[in-house]
Input
Amino acid sequence: MQVTELSAEGLKRQFKIVVPAADLAGKIDERLGEMARTAQLPGFRPGKVPMSLLKKQYGQALFGEAVEQAVNTSTAKAIEDRGLKPALQPRVDLKQLEEGKDIEFEVAIEVLPEIGKLDFSGVALERLKAEVTDKEVGDALDRIAKGNREQKPVDPARPAKSGDAIKLDFVGSIDGTPFPGGSATDYTLDLGSGSFIPGFEDQLIGAEAGKSVDVKVTFPAEYGAKELAGKDAVFACTIKEIREYVDRMPDDELAKKAGFETLDAMRKAVSDRIGQDYAQVSRAIIKRQLLDKLADSHKFPVPEGLVEAEFNAIWSRVEEAKKNGKKPEGDEDKMRGEYRGIAERRVRLGLLLADVGRSNSIEVSPEELNQAVMREAMRYPGQERQVMEFYGKNAELKEQLRAPLFEEKTVDFILELASVADKTVAPDELMKAARAAEEDAPAQPAAN
Output
């Protein structure tokens, strides 16, 4: 094998490789010899088929097999001998491929950049921390109590008002003709909930049990059912019962209903949950700070192929959004430039974090990966077992959870080395900082 370096510019390398015809012929003869020991053809006993006949029958296929093997092994050896770390699969361009002659091909690769030794002790960050207030916990308990309110029939009887729950039958029609999906029996509607067509609930305020009301509405122009959009309709409603909600206070009985032994236990659980939410927000803010500082302070070159692949992934979301009617605002060429910048930033940060993780032996354990699968399963209440089985049968899908876990562990590692100053702030200040960080983040294409 003869290797000639054709170019070395930036992260790009190009080689010319020549594999002697004799080496290829030797590989083919070796395979023919292996086949001859067991080959069976009509008119010959097993293992007695002449080599010349085998070569005539299988020579072309074996030549292709030998070429593929020679290209792969010689490319890998050329890369290994030079200590290169490819960023992507090498691109192979066959220049001469003819049986009986030397094989000539060119290999083009992009290599990973040399990042060098990193020192994070000079990275100064501020971690915002918010303490959970008694008012927040009290408000949360009140919301739980409100969600568990009970209904009772109004007594004495009175007209319906906003906040009541009414049971009714209704039949909707357009130009006197009922339309599909416009009728219901014993339907319970909370007046003031805004769950029906605009104007529907307002016309039921003042209604009385046992009486009928014609509700006239106009379906919104953007209504989901096109055959109804913009149409005038009349709903013939029969009010069957008016009920009112009975407020309740947070107490031990409510706590037991929610699965806690006492109100104090539920209060602690609520406080802990709010605290966890604040911790996640705080974590997101400081991670954004860290990534911004890393991106600003490390400007090493990145492989164009990786940037192009990342840009294509981003732009495909823009194109998909267009198909769904979400046309992007602004000049498309300018957007392409902005998203290419985002792609380059992502690739650079990805390479940086990967280098930090690799050089410091940061790994994701099987247990951590399994825990990630369990968290995914918990996002689908009632389907946890099916989700777990799905991931169990799809190793590649499960492996996709490894990258974000690795990133989080690497970020934690860097935060331990950085200079982090904690600052206690009010909850609203924390949320304001989170919104500001989101607004300052690089623009993202619209999600589907």
Remarks:
- The CA atoms of residues 199 and 217 lie 6 Å apart.
- Residues 443-448 have pLDDT under 50 and may be disordered.
- The first strand starts at residue 2 and ends at 9.
